[in-house]
Amino acid sequence: MKKIVVLDGYTLNPGDLTWAELEKLGELEVYDRTPVEEIAERCRGAEMVFTNKAPLRRETLARLPDLRYVGVLATGYDQVDVACAAELGITVTNVPSYGTESVAQFVFALLLELCHRVGEHGESVRGGDWARSPDFCYWRSPLTELSGKTMGIVGMGRIGEKVAELAKAFGMNVVASGRAGRKEPAEGTSGRENERDGKDGGVPRVELEELLRRSDVVSLHCPLTPETEGLIRQETIGRMKPGAMLVNTARGKLIAEADLAAALNEGRLAGAALDVLSAEPPSPGNPLLSARNCIITPHIAWASFEARRRLLGTAIDNAARFLSGSPVNVVGGKR
C-alpha cells in the first residue's frame, strides 16, 4: 500500500473536517506541523506528499526517490520547487478557485470594520462607556457610508469579479485596472492555469493611475510578480485620493509597508485593512503593527469552514485523478 504524508494538515483541518477519503487512497500519515529539518525524514518512502506551506525544495526532493506526487493544499505553490519536480518526474497539483466566496466576503468584513469599527464600539459598550455616557448614543470614530463611493479593484480575476458584485450591492461605483477580456491570474499563482471566462461584469477598465485617483476604496486582488511587488508605495499612495481606504487580501509584498505606515500616520489615508503582510507571521518591528487606523488579520480570508471543505475535497480529487492516470490542476512537474 502506498505511503501518503500530509506535512502540515492543521491549518486546513484543525479537527472539523475528516481525512477519511484520503485514507482510502493509501497508508496515511498526517502531521499537524512539520519543522523544516524533519520534512525529508517524514516523507521518506512516501509516494504522495501534501503540503500547505511546508517547503519542498530541491535538496529535499532529491532525497525522496519514491516520491511521485505533491499535492499543494492551497492555490499558491511557491513552496514547491516545480522545476526540480519536473526533472525528477514528480507531478505537482494545486487547488484553484476554492476560496472566491470566502475571500470576497472577508474583503467587506474588513471594509465595514474600517467604516464602522463595530468591534471597537462593542468593546466600549461592554466596558461601560454607554452606561456612563451623558448622551443617548455616541461613536468613537467617524461612521462612513459606502453607497455612492467608488471602489477600485486592482486585479479582475474571479475574486475581483465577486468583490465588484458585492460592491455594487452596497451601491458603490466600481472601476478596475487591467484589460477587458483578460482573466487575471488567481492571487498567489503564476496565472498559467487561469483563463478568462468571457465575463466583464460591466466594470470599466482604467489605468492604475486613474483608478487610484478616482477610488475611495482600493482593493488589491492581483498576483505577486516582479512587476507588482511594491505596487502600493510612496509614489502610488501619493496618487490616491486623500482620505481613501486600502484593503489587501492578496499578497503582502504588493505593499511597501513602511510607506503605507507613514501615509496612515500622517493622515494621508483614512485607513487600511490587511489580511496579508510581507512576512508572516510579522516581526515585532513591522511598522504597520503600530500604524494609525490599520486593521490586520492573520491571513484568514480563505479559511471559512466551507472554503476549507471545498479545498480538501478538491485536493483529494486531484490525488485520485493522478492515481487514475488523468491528473488535473497540474501546475508543475510531470504532466
From TrEMBL:
<dbReference type="InterPro" id="IPR006140">
    <property type="entry name" value="D-isomer_DH_NAD-bd"/>
</dbReference>
<dbReference type="Pfam" id="PF00389">
    <property type="entry name" value="2-Hacid_dh"/>
</dbReference>
<comment type="similarity">
    <text>Belongs to the D-isomer specific 2-hydroxyacid dehydrogenase family.</text>
</comment>
<dbReference type="GO" id="GO:0051287">
    <property type="term" value="F:NAD binding"/>
</dbReference>
<feature type="compositionally biased region" description="Basic and acidic residues">
    <location>
        <begin position="181"/>
        <end position="204"/>
    </location>
</feature>
<dbReference type="InterPro" id="IPR006139">
    <property type="entry name" value="D-isomer_2_OHA_DH_cat_dom"/>
</dbReference>
<dbReference type="Pfam" id="PF02826">
    <property type="entry name" value="2-Hacid_dh_C"/>
</dbReference>
<keyword id="KW-0520">NAD</keyword>
<protein>
    <submittedName>
        <fullName>D-2-hydroxyacid dehydrogenase</fullName>
    </submittedName>
</protein>
<dbReference type="InterPro" id="IPR036291">
    <property type="entry name" value="NAD(P)-bd_dom_sf"/>
</dbReference>
<feature type="domain" description="D-isomer specific 2-hydroxyacid dehydrogenase NAD-binding">
    <location>
        <begin position="108"/>
        <end position="301"/>
    </location>
</feature>
<dbReference type="GO" id="GO:0016616">
    <property type="term" value="F:oxidoreductase activity, acting on the CH-OH group of donors, NAD or NADP as acceptor"/>
</dbReference>
<feature type="region of interest" description="Disordered">
    <location>
        <begin position="178"/>
        <end position="204"/>
    </location>
</feature>
<keyword id="KW-0560">Oxidoreductase</keyword>
<feature type="domain" description="D-isomer specific 2-hydroxyacid dehydrogenase catalytic">
    <location>
        <begin position="19"/>
        <end position="330"/>
    </location>
</feature>
<dbReference type="InterPro" id="IPR050418">
    <property type="entry name" value="D-iso_2-hydroxyacid_DH_PdxB"/>
</dbReference>
